[in-house]
Amino acid sequence: MSKVQLPNTKLFINNEWVESVSGKKFKTFNPVNEELICEVSEGDKADVDIAVKAAREALENGEWSKMTSEDRGRIILKFADLIEKHKDNLAQLETLDNGKPLTASKGYDITQSEKTLRYFGGWADKIQGKTIPISNEYTSITRHEPIGVVALIVAWNYPCMLLCWKLGPALAAGCTIVAKPSEFTPLTALYLCELIKEAGFPPGVFNLVNGFGATVGSALSHHMDIDKISFTGSTITGRLIMEGAAKSNLKPVTLELGGKSPNIFFNDCDVNHIAQCAKDYVFANSMQSCCAPSRFFVQENIYEAFLQIFTENIKLLKVGDPNVNGTNLGPLVSKQQHDRVLGYIQKGKEEGATCHLGGGNYHHADGKGYFVQPTIFTNVTDDMTICKEEIFGPVVVILPFKTVDEVIKRANNTTYGLAAGVWTKDISLALNVSNKLKSGSVWINEYYSIMPSIPFGGYKQSGIGRDLSEYAIQSYLSVKAVTIAH
Ligand code: NAD
């Protein structure tokens, strides 16, 4: 493994690296050993104003605004090529900053980032309006124009990938961008800036202002000259973003928020198969995933066998240094997240649930790092905190159920509605249940199939709008109807 190359850590505006107006910096830490990685320029409202101005100029008068959609697509595809070329370094940076296993950073996060840009690069010259023949005297045509300057604010759990999910459709639509990564994981987005420049995006198309939610994030959501905001993060922050949009220029919002996803196993399942499959996906990213399958509903006839085989399999997972091959769970991203998850585990015990496996800190060699063991709770009731709230850590609750109607009701008994899994050999049952689940994604006999061409987003308080697929592009476009009398 080659030595990781750190990115420039200033703000990136107009294709230049610049210091923040205040000159302030914040620190980013390695969650494996709690050591400082580097200091990063900390933006504020004044920097947001400068970045928005650059993005506005690029949108209205810059080279980008005069480019053909084909050329736009070509640059996006070149950007995807560069991500592929720099995959090793990007993956190492992601693991360094976030703590996820290097195999996942490389095989999933960075690979998905590249694939997403490739998908949307292909869309750039296929965005078309319609002709609406009103009568012999009138024809109306629709023009699909870029919505304008967009702000992209993302979370720390898939830092590079979540940004690329939004960059792809925004760039394909012809928008210009001001992005703000999470203050916990600023590094891969900074590294992308050089690739943006090398790919040939003109100055001002992509601008990056690192900093905190309460300052940079809030300035973006309240900004009068930003035309749309696309956000991935918690439901609490989503509300603040929407409030900022409502109180300023009523900019539209796309919100990708939290989840408490049910994963339902019916009696006819092959228990060995489903328990083995579950081992491979349930603790992915240490369940720091918005669609983590945190509530397992298992039908009564297979409950005992499932619990036994699943537990045996989970015991095989390795917690430890994310840079070591074979590690399944690295540390959680930060001390805050680590303490929050342990707080939920404690709460589960206090409320009377049985901690069937795990349930504590995992002590790495030197006692450092934000590790938590994979944890399974049983004897959980639907009203317990660990069954209702998003934990965002490696904690799964196993809940027995009897009937189809019962499990649909209980699965839907949440304020969230992001994803769900249904496992059965009976495809009619699977489709009927999936129709009744209030969830943006339903996976049947699998979990976590997320691809650039499949829309992703939430029902209820899991969000508004969709990332990925052609549905995402629509949200970065304004439709203009031009009606001609002839
Ligand atoms: P968070 O809401 O704390 O932060 C997300 C981003 O919002 C960060 O960049 C943060 O700096 C910024 N922010 C914070 N306060 C802000 C404010 N007042 N105004 C504007 N921006 C602000 O979330 P997090 O802890 O980084 O991420 C975890 C959450 O993200 C979980 O709830 C998870 O479910 C959700 N998530 C959702 C999806 C999805 O696609 N639905 C994907 C990944 C993560």
UniProtKB/TrEMBL annotation:
CDD domains: ALDH_F1-2_Ald2-like
Keyword terms, alphabetized: NAD, Oxidoreductase
Gene Ontology biological process: carboxylic acid metabolic process
Gene Ontology CC: mitochondrion
Aldehyde dehydrogenase domain residues: 17-482
Active site: E256
GO molecular function: aldehyde dehydrogenase (NAD+) activity
Pfam families: Aldedh (PF00171)
Domain of life: Eukaryota
PANTHER family reported in the protein's UniProt record: ALDEHYDE DEHYDROGENASE-RELATED
Family indicated by similarity: Belongs to the aldehyde dehydrogenase family.
Protein name according to UniProt: Aldehyde dehydrogenase
Lineage: Eukaryota, Amoebozoa, Evosea, Eumycetozoa, Dictyostelia
